[in-house]
Write a structure and sequence with these properties.
mitosis
């Protein structure tokens, strides 16, 4: 019984954090294909609140994982730094840092 309650609390907390990120940061993650035990997995990442003049504009990419190697498809808008970021991700496996860097690169597009 206690394990069930603990699991329910964790799920509830994750849901709250997800909604916080989605509503306040405009950050959303969606599994698109595959899973933990699949040969290929795809996860969609989208960001809003990048452009203060157009906060609902969506910036997005799909992260593909095949046999422990990451790649990206459908990056909108495209990023010139994506290959470098992917190389670093594949070296370090630091997904959170990768996502932060992609978001920063999307933001830097507005400065040009």
């Amino acid at each position: 019984m206690k394990d069930t309650q603990t699991l329910e609390k964790k799920i509830s907390l994750r849901s709250e954090l997800y909604e916080l990120y989605k509503d306040n940061l405009g950050f959303e993650i969606k599994p698109l294909k595959g899973g933990m035990n699949e040969e290929q997995s795809e996860i969609g990442f989208s960001f809003n609140h990048i452009d203060k003049n157009n906060p609902l504009e969506t910036y997005s990419f799909i992260l593909v994982l095949i046999e422990k190697t990451y790649s990206v498809k459908n990056c909108t808008p495209s990023l010139t730094e994506m290959e470098r970021l992917l190389t670093e991700l594949n070296k370090t496996n630091d997904l959170s840092s990768f996502v932060i860097q992609v978001r920063r690169n999307f933001m830097s597009l507005l400065k040009n």
